[in-house]
Amino acid sequence: MLFGESGPLGGAAWTAPTVRSGWLQGLRSLAQHPGALRFLADCGAVDTIFSLQGDSSLFVASAAGQLLVHILALAMRGPAEGHPSPQGCDWPACAQKIVCHVEDSLRSTATLQVTQALNVLTTTFGHCHSPWTQGLWVRLSPLVACLLEKDPIPASHSLVDLLLSVARSPVGSSDCGLWETLAQTLSHLSPTQAGPLALGILKLQDCPQALKTQAFGVLLQPLACVLKAAAQAPGPPGFPEGATGDSITVDTFLSSKSACVGLLCQALAHLELLQLLPQRPSPWPQAPLLRAAVAILRFCHGSAAPTSDVGGHLCAVLAGCVRVQRAALDFLGTLSQGTGPQELVTQVFAVLLEYLTSPDSSPMVLKKAFQATLRWLLGSPKAPSCCDLDPHTQLFLGELLPVLRKRLCSPCWEARDSGLEFLTQVTRHWGGQAAFRHALLASEVPELTGQLLRDPESYVRASAVTATGQLSSWGLYATPTGPEHPEVQQESLFTELLHILSTDSEGFPRRAVMHVFTQWLKDGHADVAEDLEQFVARVLQAASQDLDWEVRAQGLELALVFLEQLLGQPGSRCPYAVALPEAAPPATLAQVLQALCRVQLFEFALRALFDCDRPVAQKSCDLLLFLKAKATPCGGPQEAGASPDVVSVEAALQRWQAGEQGQPLGELEPEAVMAVLRSMDLEGLRGMLAKSSDHMEKSPQSLLQDMLATVGVLGENEADCY
Amino acid sequence: MPEIRVTPLGAGQDVGRSCILVSIGGKNVMLDCGMHMGFSDDRRFPDFSYITRNGRLTDFLDCVIISHFHLDHCGALPYFSEMVGYDGPIYMTQPTQAICPILLEDYRKIAVDKKGEANFFTSQMIKDCMKKVVAVHLHQTVQVDDELEIKAYYAGHVLGAAMFQIKVGSESVVYTGDYNMTPDRHLGAAWIDKCRPNLLITESTYATTIRDSKRCRERDFLKKVHETVERGGKVLIPVFALGRAQELCILLETFWERMDLKAPIYFSTGLTEKANHYYKLFIPWTNQKIRKTFVQRNMFEFKHIKAFDRAFADSPGPMVVFATPGMLHAGQSLQIFRKWAGSERNMVIMPGYCVQGTVGHKILSGQRKLEMEGRQVLEVKMQVEYMSFSAHADAKGIMQLVGQAEPENVLLVHGEAKKMEFLKQKIEQEFRVSCYMPANGETVTLSTSPSIPVGISLGLLKREMAQGLLPDAKKPRLLHGTLIMKDSNFRLVSSEQALKELGLAEHQLRFTCRVHLHDTRKEQETALRVYSHLKSVLKDHCVQHLPDGSVTVESILIQAAAHSEDPSTKVLLVSWTYQDEELGSYLTSLLKKGLPQAS
């Protein structure tokens, strides 16, 4: 009655998938102990769940499958805990029913039903690790093995998932037959279907070496084919045995363009993942993989001269194929973790340069080419004699920088941006290398970077700000004023960045400026250190008026760095830290507070405390609490009492809290500020700010008010969406 | 049979987080990748696990298409591309590409504020995501790969909004995104050509509504603003940075100009200046009127609308302020609202949707005492108005678009189930096409008849021409030939050529049939009678009587023989080739009826 046709299934509401989904959720919360289970089983709920497995809604079908697993696990948790017999005579009735249903589905000729059964089993072996799963596998594995004998193999994707799930579970380690099944599956599936299984096998902690070799062979097949197709003459040794470019893979390559592209992309992605794993096959065929990646990129670029039929076909299919280019460049980048013979590395750089130079490279491909180049550059060995770059890298830099220069002038903003990002990264790592400095200064790249500070695209301006900031940190930012007056240049860059901070109409460049300034302050940039207070005061003044919340928040970040430099890290215990002791002695503290007043840090922080954007207020609260903690233990300057200064500060605070702007506070006395800080409940404020606005909106009281208010209101405005 | 499969992961019988998966001709395309304003937990994004289980996302999906910049259509994009890991191409129009990041930044801010999620998705992720975008022009056919092509059509709704046609071979789907069939103050009406797609996926927000004239709503809005300003009150209009804000700006600007009003109008956010900049940049996407007057004066160079400074909120006297965010849940709009709420002279106009729980939602549902943070209670005395300006097609507009595109099937998304049901019936009745309305997660499968291109040999065509019949495009004609399938190509050639190409010898296949006739005369005479009969019946055919006594009609051979057992019966042996199958059958049936009595 509760679950049959006369129950929910007959109701009109049942046609809505959300109702069915809700019904399943309800059942799931009901099915928490064996007693409830018996009730559900007796009422026919399990049959309804079976039928919902084939529901028209993916969400309902998936929830039904998961619920079945939950019920099965719950049923088995009861009296049959332990090692039930595979025949199932001692299994609880409910579990018996589910397993029989799974068995029937596995025998079905309808792929959909097989898929459902496989998915239920995958979840079961993925989540349940009790001994009974072993019995389950013994009982079902012959049926699963039968699926392998069909041609084509039904639901191959789900089958792969199941086999991997079993292999990862405790069942896998105790069942030798499983390895045979896996090996058999690998050889039965098409190359595209076998890829994910092969990767899954190679990720397993302990599985027989022979199986691993077979799986690795599957992943390498497509690249072996490429190598074979690209070979001009019998070349250097290729991949290990078992990966020689078999005829099935070749057939896939030749069958259609999408099959060829799909298989190659998949193989490249899988090998990329594998390369990063500690359990990757050893020895790792770095050299042939490199050759294959280079060959693929050349096929895509049209610079390969194939001699074989397959080669010609690949040339035609891959020419200009952005999808393969992206995958191959990512893969090539990952390969930079290993080494290779110099002749091969030279080829890698050559092909990367081809892509960076080519006008046909799409913006996305160009970005990936820059990323791969960066990885190869940073991975390249240092010259043995000194710590400078090796001659090959120096040679490459000589060719690369003109290309970079050209890209910085590209009409496409994505290209300019990727170029700037590359420049920033490479400078961050090599700013101190003499060869790099020399090559960079000889190119026009720094000047161009400076010009891009006025780019029409805000993203590019932001990247240019970051790049010039980085260049300047290494003394590499040159302006037309010439290198003989470094102090003039530096001043001009600071002014220029400050100008951007105060005038740029968009947030990204202004945020970038704040990041650069914070970094300069942290690094003790020579020109910042020259007049630290002046620098901080000017930056904070600009940041305080910014409309962008992130600029204001970053302003507080900069203020915190400044504070830490004056007062020491919060809770710093580092024996080498040059910071002051935890509580600064009063004399020093007084000086510090004076300095803070001079740069108007207090006014900035106190205003930010009532900022309409919560993250800004939160940061300011943290900063003031830090200051309060530093100042309080030693008593701080003398109590100021209710001096006129304190009164004016408190009045200003009240105005800001009410959202008014009011007049600037002007010169402040440190004593007054400290007195105000002590009197404020900053901890309470921090607690309140930590609760996001969701806290108010989602509170039961708010919900109740909304429900009460909504009664009787027409739904007119709910229809108006965006 | 090839098929088209459509699965909404969002916007199926629902409004919010539009995300529709389409499989067509072996290609998988994601249409929109939006978020749901009403949720701040997992449900805010479409459930992508259903596609990630199909293997690597970038391998499975051929492309993502974004119809316009509203967050319920693009809000999940950085999450999808930078966190879930989609690395393929994303297509959208140029204005959408330019404006999308602004909205996404706005959304990021809301997420940070509402949930404290500072690393929800970063600005860098938004940028990296935008770098994957390939911008498309209107009516330009973009080749995603060799087989898949897409084409954008103007959709109205908001700046840069587009409908997309997705085509693989002869199969095609059109996705409308959100659209508007009537022009408004700054945008034109949606338009599509008679592209006769297999399927039209259309939004159905106003499936049951025939909307009152927009003019009325505008008049109402202006009247309310004017009245408030006249009595010295302040008007707050909380908006999202883009979209409706621009339309309301044009509205107020023109009104201020016409009425020569002096009260200041302010825009509170830096973002909107940028938005206005884009509206100026993408003038070709606006409507004809704006485009025409553009040379004399750019509509978006506002004379009366100025940037807002926080200090202005305290100035005495009337003013109108546009402030973000649109739902009054945080930020500047909430700050101004708290200041102005206490005076009954002031007014707040909510021009859009508000999520439950937000201050915007509360005041719209009539609550007048709001509990704010820190146990403060805010008494709302100011007037609260709701004005809908959303630019969606109403029922009439949707029907109009279906009529324009002439699809074979229609699928409804982005609407409420009940309303969809009504429209579905209407569409099925009026256009006699099937209409579907899947819920989220439900798959609709449509079979399509494939059209397979076949090459025809010149020889065969020439021979056909030699028969004297001129080809007529409107009349199909029967053409005999041999279909050769080779290297996944189909060609129709003459049988001789086929034999030659395939290196095969010719075999003649003849059908034979015996017809028994009651005739006491000799065989030769029977044959002669058959000849005369056929000659008289088949006037258009060549009937011959051969010296050996047999009769031929084209390739059909008829011989008369005596019956071995019954001398009064003659047996006619009829044989024909397969080319004359039709005539052969006809002749046998004719002969079976017997011969006319000799006169």
Descriptive key words:
heterodimer; A: 722 residues; mainly alpha; 69% helix; 0% strand; flat; disordered C terminus; B: 599 residues; alpha/beta; 7-stranded mixed sheet; nucleus (chain B); Metallo-B-lactamas (chain B); RNA endonuclease activity (chain B)
Could you explain the architecture of this structure?
The complex is a heterodimer of chains A (722) and B (599). By secondary structure, chain A is mainly α. Chain A contains 37 helices and no strands. In chain A, helix 29 packs parallel to helix 32. Chain A is flat, with a radius of gyration of 34 Å. With 599 residues, chain B is of the alpha/beta class. In chain B, a hairpin with a 5-residue loop joins strand 27 and strand 28. Chain B is elongated. Classes of the chains: A mainly alpha (722), B alpha/beta (599).
Largest sheet of chain B: 7 strands, mixed
For the record, give the distance between the C-alpha atoms at the N and C termini of chain A, rounded to a whole number.
44 Å
In angstroms, what is the radius of gyration of chain B? Answer: 37 Å
Q: What structural class results from the helix and strand content of chain B? A: alpha/beta
Give the quaternary arrangement of the chains: heterodimer
Question: What is the terminal separation of chain B in angstroms?
Answer: 60 Å
Uncertain residue ranges of chain A: 572-584, 714-721
Radius of gyration of chain A: 34 Å
Mean pLDDT reading of chain A: 84
GO cellular component, one term (chain A): cytoplasm
Keywords (chain A): Cytoplasm
Subcellular location (chain A): Cytoplasm
GO biological process, one term (chain A): DNA damage response
